[in-house]
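Q: I'm teaching a short session on how sequence maps to structure, and I want students to see two examples side by side rather than one. Could you give me a first protein with its sequence written out and its structure tokens following it? Keep the formatting plain so it prints cleanly on a handout.
A: Of course. Example one:
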Amino acid sequence: METVPSSANLPVPFFRRLDVIPERTLYTARPGILAVPSGAGSVVFFIGLQCLTLIGFLYAIWWPAPSGPHDWEFAISATSILAALIIAIFWLMLRRFPGFLLAVLRSPFISISVTDRRLLWTLPWMKGPLMEIGRDRITGALTGALDRKGNGPAAVILIPGDPCADFDGNIHFDRLPDAAAFVSALTRG
């Protein structure tokens, strides 16, 4: 074994294994559009209703076409005010909830992998994992009712007090492909 020099200021001696044991992948899934959170459809529906209202306002402002300088002034100023309000709302949402919006936008591209050492969330354009949980922090896994394709909800049960867990100590997946294989891979390792 190779030892790091004492000048490295490590609290304990560090040993590097020369016979590296490769990590085995037990499960990999790329849920795609299934990874979008459950309430995203409702949000898109209500945003669509707001867009229809905006189109109605723009139609009322610009029809019939402005003919005089005062009409042009009104149409341009009203459109500018609407655009400023929309930009302000988006800016406020981005400032207040940047993590949620970012998570929803990149969720269809996330790949979930279970290895014999860890649980990984990866994105194709990132070198390192988005999130990683060691197997020592996982105490079990559960699956819910599955459809005929095997897709369904699953939950990873973490040790009490884990910072990645939600209020009940789990990480939930709404619509995971082959959820039974996911649970089996987590309980097998």
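Q: Perfect. Now a second example for contrast.
A: Example two:
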Amino acid sequence: MRLPGAILFCILLATGHAAATAQEAEPAAGVPSGVPRAGHSHGSGRHGIIQGFTGQAVLLCIDARIMGRNRELSWNESHKQATIPGHPVEIKLVGDNVVVAVQFTPYVRRGGSQKFLVAQVRVWMDTPDRGILYHASMQTLHVHFAEPVYFFPLGPVRDDGPSIEVVLTIYPYEE
């Protein structure tokens, strides 16, 4: 497997931009003022959503890295993203011959007694002998705050080959 020398890493709050723009332009009928609505995936819209759900919001700390041969770190990037339970956060890694999209959706039961995470992984890889390969998977994991969760979107790590690793840690959101 060939991994690119340069990777583009993006984190997106997976809310519909067009729907958010329409909601901001016209108030929703029957929705009382002061009730948070979906906003842009950046800027004051998301901040307003988070403020409206104080006590329920979570912070996702995402560390994506490429490990080269002999487990040497060849690329690393970290981001923090606040969201509310049920709203996904997606990361995309785009390289020369591979695209990896991982979507994390946290859920917290009332009272915070149980927390779980739904992780959806989609991988497109261009191989010289078989063309473009596609793989998708979904997992639901019970998680605890401050406990790292490791994802290997390209499969098990081999000592002699490169790998992509994503480490996610969930914390309660605090301003």
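Q: What should students look for in example two?
A: Point them to this: The two ends are 42 Å apart (CA to CA). Also worth mentioning: The chain has two helices and nine strands.
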